[in-house]
C-alpha cells in the first residue's frame, strides 16, 4: 500500500508541477467563467468550482507533503553520508540532527556559526588549501 501511494504521489506531483497542467487548470477556470451567463451565475454554478477546487486543494496538500517528506529524508541521508565520509566533520554531532528539537538545532547552529566566524577571523590573510583567500566568503 505504501509503495502504491508513493508511486501515485510521485506521478501526480510530477504532473502537477508542469506548465501544461497549469495551463489546463487556467483553461478549466476560463471555461467555467464563460459558462456563467449560460447558468445565470447561479449558486449551483458557483458551488461547482468551489467544491472542485476545495477537493483538489485538500488532496494536493497530502501529496505535496508526502513528496516533501521523501525529498527531505533523502537529502538528510545524503548529507549524513557526506558527514561520515569527510574526515574531521562533526559526524557524531550532526548526523541525525533533524530529529532534535528546534531549540537544540538552533543552539548547534549558533555554535557552528560562532566557530565559523572565529575561524574566519583567525584565518584572515592566509590562503586555503585550494588557493583562495580565507577571508573571501
Question: Which descriptors apply to this entry?
Answer:
single chain; mainly alpha; 137 residues; 72% helix
Describe the structure.
The chain is mostly helical and 137 residues long. It folds into two domains: 2-91; 100-137, no CATH class. The protein is 72% helix and 0% strand. It has five helices and no strands. It has helices spanning 2-16, 19-34, 43-85, 91-94, 102-122. It is elongated and about 75 Å long. The protein starts with a helix and ends in a 15-residue tail after the last helix.
Q: Any low-confidence stretches, pLDDT <50, length ≥5?
A: 129-137
- Spatial gap, N to C terminus: 47 Å
The helix count comes to 5
Number of domains: 2
Strand and helix order: HHHHH
Q: What's the alpha carbon Rg, rounded to whole Å?
A: 25 Å
SS elements, strand count:
0
Short description, anyone?
The protein is mainly alpha-helical. It folds into two domains: 2-91; 100-137, no CATH class.
Which SSEs are present, and which pair or pack?
Blueprint: H1 2-16, H2 19-34, H3 43-85, H4 91-94, H5 102-122
Amino acid at each position: 500500500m505504501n509503495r502504491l501511494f508513493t508511486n501515485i504521489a510521485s506521478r501526480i506531483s510530477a504532473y502537477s508541477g508542469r506548465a501544461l497542467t497549469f495551463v489546463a487548470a487556467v483553461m478549466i477556470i476560463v471555461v467555467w467563467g464563460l459558462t456563467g451567463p449560460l447558468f445565470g451565475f447561479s449558486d449551483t454554478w458557483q458551488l461547482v468550482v468551489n467544491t472542485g477546487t476545495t477537493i483538489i486543494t485538500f488532496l494536493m496538500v497530502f501529496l505535496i507533503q508526502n513528496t516533501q517528506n521523501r525529498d527531505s529524508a533523502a537529502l538528510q541521508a545524503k548529507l549524513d553520508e557526506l558527514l561520515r565520509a569527510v574526515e574531521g566533520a562533526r559526524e557524531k554531532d550532526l548526523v541525525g540532527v533533524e530529529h532534535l528539537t528546534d531549540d537544540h538545532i538552533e543552539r548547534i547552529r549558533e555554535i557552528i556559526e560562532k566557530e565559523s566566524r572565529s575561524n574566519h577571523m583567525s584565518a584572515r590573510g592566509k590562503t586555503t588549501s585550494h588557493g583562495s583567500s580565507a577571508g573571501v566568503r
